[in-house]
Amino acid sequence: MMFAVAMTFIDQTIVAIAAPDITEELGLTTAGIRWVVNAYLLALAACFALGGRLADIHGHRRVTLIGTLIFVTASVLCGCVPAGEYAQAWMITFRAVQGVGAALLFPAALAVVTAVFPVERRGRALALFFGLSGALTAIGPLLGGVLTAWTWRAIFWVNVPVALVAVVLTVLARIPDTGRRERLDIPGAVLVALGMALSVLGLQQASEWGWASPATWGCVLVGAALLVVFCVYELRVPAQPLIKLRVFRDRAFSADTATVFFAMLAFVPLFFFASVYAQVSLGKSPNEAALYLLWFFLGFVIATQIGGRMLDKRGARPALLLGSAIGAVGFWLWSLKLTDLSFSAQWPYVVLAGAGIGLLLAPASTDSVNRAIDASYGEVTGITQTVRNYAAAVGLAVYGTVLSRVTVDRITGTLESRGVPDAVAAEAAQGIARTVAGHGGGREPLAGEGPVGEALRDSAGAIRMDFAEANQWVFHGMALALVAAFLCALAHPGTRVTAAGPGAPAPGPGGPPPEPPKAPQAP
Prior knowledge:
The structure is a single chain. The protein has 17 helices and two strands. The protein has 523 residues and is mainly alpha-helical. The protein has two domains: 175 residues, Growth Hormone, Chain: A (Up-down Bundle); 254 residues, MFS general substrate transporter like domains (Growth Hormone, Chain: A, Up-down Bundle), CATH 1.20.1250. The protein has a two-stranded antiparallel ribbon. α8 runs antiparallel to α9. The longest helix has 41 residues. The chain starts with a helix and ends in an 18-residue tail after the last strand.
């Protein structure tokens, strides 16, 4: 299962590094390459809930294999895109198909791991699962830089050998594949897919359309309304709804889900904002920026294993509280060091921020899955992953708007102090903000012609500092998101799931977990 999900996590970040080469060879527009990146994430967010339910109905192993085959087929077709007028539509279409394959694959794979490990060992197992998946997300940009040096098409073709290994291991593992004779709630699936797709689309496009645009708010509000209609409809479905919303009556499940939501406001957007900060303010190459992020995942991977053991021994609440507190402190201290423009002054806080996220992520996710009604692990995994993706979209949109606005204000002031006319300074500052928002597009953000270009080059040091100060606002926001996660963790009742069922009190620090009842011996 870890081999299977490896592809989906790498592909969330690997394409952004190859974006300049893809744009140049295929002649894509700026909006086109943005859609190549976003189409995958949009389809992923829209289809997660459906993928989880299909896994429960048709069997986790079977849906894992189907999702893997869809994903790798779409990857091959992305890598084989022909140059010409249809290249942009081709790439966007098959990137979306990749997202659908990943939405089938991930909930099913996580449900397999959940089902085959007993509850008293599940924390450590899923800690390894989430630790690896998080590390692979960070490796994506680094791997993308290496493969793009050969050809950008290799970033898609690399999925083929990984998928072959995943399929062979899945077959050899003899995973039980017991589906359920239940109907699929098609109206519910359509409602949640449209609601998620429209709301995430509005958030993704907010930086391009603008927050004052009717299109932005139309997508967000219509999508949110459809999600409300979906919830009302699901509560009234007499039998076999797409999602059993009564699981939210479990206070621990609701606390887990809310904690994950706020943690994801910091975790997923970090890949973009820290990478761009490293390239613009620290002057790093894309590959060096990827190495910068690996320090975050050093803390993340180690703390994930600790969090899993804490869950097995003491329940989720201690790990959630400790992780969110450490993460909030780590992000806040990291933000204060951004203006030093020196990685050596930042790395302890980078590791600390990663440790905080790692400590809470696996316990919150595992504890929520443990509380699935009727062991509907795929369904609950679909819920938690939908929440994660929605939080990521919100974080990217909100932080991106804050970063762009503060960047424009500060760079405009810097250029005006160098004698650049107000209107020209504002236009140049907005151009830099647009370049940065698109991952730079392979261009030097401080490039330009004539007097403005000369002013940009003369002010390079001050502008890099301006961008670092703008990023401080983003990292302050991430720290506050972890504070909100801490408050949600306080609402966790401290009960834990054992082999005897949910609701048992978590033992104190000095007491061992309760022994699960022994299964009766067969005659």
